[in-house]
Amino acid sequence: MDIRIAPADIFPWNENFQTGISVIDDQHRKLVALLNKLASHLAFGDDKPELNSIFDELADYAQYHFKTEEGVWRKYLSADELLTGHAKTHQSFVTEVLHIRGKQDSLVTEQVVEEIVIFLTHWLAFHILEADKHLAKIVLSVQKGLTLTEAKEKASTEMSGALRVLIETILSMYDTLSTRTLQLMREVAERQRAEERLRLSRKVIDSTLEAIFITDENGMVIDTNPSFCLDVQLKHEQAIGKDIRQLKPGLFSEDKSDEIWKAATESGHWAGETVGRDASGEIEGAWLALSSIKDNQGVITHYVGVVSSITHLVKRQQTLEVEANHDALTGLPNRRLLQDRLAQAVTRSNRGSRVLAVCYLDLDGFKQINDTLGHDAGDDVLRIVAGRLSKLLRGEDTVVRLGGDEFVLLLGDLENEDGAVQLLTRLLKDVAQPMSIHGKQVEVSASMGVTFYPRDHGTPEQLLTHADEAMLTAKREGKSRYHFYK
After folding, report:
1. Are residue 350 and residue 434 in the same domain, yes or no?
2. Are residues 335 and 468 in the same domain?
3. Is the pLDDT of residue 105 over 80?
4. Mean pLDDT of 10-31
5. pLDDT averaged over the chain?
6. What per-residue confidence (pLDDT) applies to 274?
7. How many domains does the chain have?
8. Are residues 152 and 213 in the same domain?
């Protein structure tokens, strides 16, 4: 966000700059305004494209003005040598502006910027007060009936003597004024940038979830962020002036308080695990980082503390792990977690000499429901089937949704293969029970392929492949049944 205040003009316009020819005076004002605009952008350190645009605008308008001005002079001065020299001066100005624009990459020092502004200010002031005012006096005299020779003599007389001294004095004053104004604009620009950095820092502190506090050298609170106020259940103004050790006693427990303050005082920082209380008053783990702030003489003036809830971080980590390992629709373990569960089930089977049944289940009739009633109805069917499968399984068993309408069941700790038959039959029966979806009764069935470990002594990946092959056989044999891999 641009917070720039209106700067003072490098070249303040004065009515004494008027030549008496309105079209020229109006364009002079425009040139002065463009010069002030360019000086402002140079002082505020704007980016190159914007500066180039202003340089181009200044050069283009200068050419337009010079063309207009020369047309006025030519009407009254014809091919006079004054007009020829004046035109060359015009072209030198445009050339210099474009030359400066081409050297933008070198505009990095204050001295260079200052030299540019002084040149442009001096040239324009001299051109208006000296050259243009001289020619304007000639034109105005010719318009009043004097011959060109008489008009030139009259203008030379008026532009000499005291007026000449006055013009030189004004030019010198403008050089000094432009330098001091530019310095002031730089100071304003730097102050505004510093204020913007402070505003940004404050927004960051106020927006963070971590509780942040600042104390004086004695540990008395002088500032906090909203998260800290929420943590201690106090308004900002209520927390100010209180001892941080009393506001957050858990952070500075008796067995750690001396260690924390000593480290922050002597080495500048202390960070470690401590305890605190959440907004409800419950004790929770916390991570405290305490730093000391020193003045230019190396004397500690403040302490800054940042408190992070470890409990919150742990809960967040647990949430992320659940999201990574579970199906978002049904809440069942997903393919990623299946790999771990299957490896564990194989290990338990080997250790206990027990049988593991790996079952690959695919719903029959699901596509028709999805196509006729819509995806929302299909999602409801999947959630209901997932619930029925989970309800029938034992604590050591696992049901996984692979995706679509495919599920995998791991039935472990079986004495023998026959021990799975009764459970498989119940699973198929429960899945096939009618269900009410969006006010309509619908039914699905399941085809299931089963392979038994350790008789099928394949790798976990091979066990899944074999169960999948057996499931396809069950579908070919009429669906709503199971088939054992052989």
Report:
1. yes
2. yes
3. no
4. 83
5. 84
6. 82
7. 3
8. no
Taking 60 as the threshold, does the pLDDT of residue 165 lie above it? no
CA distances to 18, 129, 455 from 425, rounded to whole Å, are: 105, 106, 21
Task: Tell me, yes or no, whether 460 and 350 share the same domain.
Answer: yes
Contacts of 153 (CB under 8 A, 6+ apart): none
Q: Give the pLDDT score at 250.
A: 72
The reply to whether 375 falls in a domain is yes
Single residue among 199, 226, 258 that ends a domain in this structure: 199
Structural domain boundaries, residue 371 = 327-484
pTM of whole model > 0.90? no
Q: Round to the nearest angstrom and report the end-to-end CA distance of the chain.
A: 72
Could you tell me what percent of the chain has a pLDDT over 90? 44
Whichever domain contains 230, its CATH number is 3.30.450.20
152 shares a domain with 56: yes
**Are 195 and 215 part of one and the same domain?**
no
Q: What is the CATH number of the domain that holds 21?
A: 1.20.120.50
Share of the chain above pLDDT 70, in %: 84
Whether residue 168 is found in the same domain as residue 213: no
Pairing of strands 283-294, 435-437: unpaired
